[in-house]
Amino acid sequence: MEAILALLFGLLIGSFLNVCIYRWPNDLSVVRPRSHCVACGHSIAWYDNVPLASYAVLGGQCRHCRARISLRYPAVELLTGVLFFVYVLAKGLTLESVRDCLFAAMLVGLIFSDLEERILPDEFTLGGTALGLLVSFFVPVPDMTAKAILWLLGWEPQGIWQSPAESLCGALFPALLLWGGGWVYEKVRHREGLGLGDVKLMAMVGAFLGLRGSLLTLIVGSLAGSVLGYTYILATKKDASTYQLPFGTFLGAAALAVTLIGEKMLGWWGTLL
């Protein structure tokens, strides 16, 4: 029952995420004006704004102007609902599953914002980083790597500070590593190869997952982006030198995978080594 309620709540959160995905990259308020058709501007009645159901009833079209409604809307709602269901089903209605749901919701928003607009809104990345650091005081970050590193540097966080230390190190180190890689690329190729939004996204991921989880996200996201991105460029015959790869989409998807099967990934990696 808890998982079913989480699914329904996730559908509602997904509906709100759709508003954020459209408005934040365009510097618009998510509060005003009320939801409306982007084609004709007509306000959407509550009965036409029910997650999944309204899209199906309307046949994917605006009731007033019959303009097509993007498949992104039901996709975001369904994905968010399913993720909430999976987390609560696996861990029950606990602080840990609530943290995972919050993290997943922001990742879904970032994945589709980058895919659609090539923008990673600060409201998701910087706001998510701050939220991850705050949540770490109440829900332990699943990592002990930072504790070992800080011990080598002469300080071992204890008690309430141990989890926030893991969160802070997870936010800083991978983000700096990614920023450094982008800086080197720009100096060598004389063009920007990485946006600051991707760096901020990694900071958010590290704040929730810790150093080990964020590094795993960076590896998986980079590999997926390289293979799938290059395959897409070849298949569509785009210019690889000018095509803007939505790297944040791959990083966000990788972070979701880490929350779901991160331990299995680490096991596979250890087996390969």
Task: Give a brief rundown of this model.
The chain has 273 residues and is an all-alpha fold.
Kindly list the characteristics that best describe this protein.
273 residues; mainly alpha; 2 domains; globular
Structural summary, described in words:
69% of the residues lie in helices and 0% in strands. It has 273 residues and is mostly helical. It has two domains: 1-88, no CATH class; 94-273, no CATH class. Helix 1 packs antiparallel against helix 3 (72-91), helix 4 packs antiparallel against helix 5 and helix 7 (162-189) crosses helix 8. 38% of the residues are buried. The mean pLDDT is 88.
**What is the subunit arrangement here?**
single chain
When the domains are counted, the total is 2
Principal-axes geometry comes out as: globular
Which blocks of ≥5 consecutive residues have pLDDT under 50? none
Query: Structural class of the helix and strand makeup?
Result: mainly alpha
Number of strands: 0
* Cα radius of gyration in angstroms: 20 Å
List the secondary-structure elements in sequence, H or E: HHHHHHHHH
How much beta, percentage-wise? under 5%
Counted by DSSP, the helix tally is 9
State the share of residues found in helices, binned by percent.
55-70%
Estimate the mean pLDDT confidence.
Answer: 88
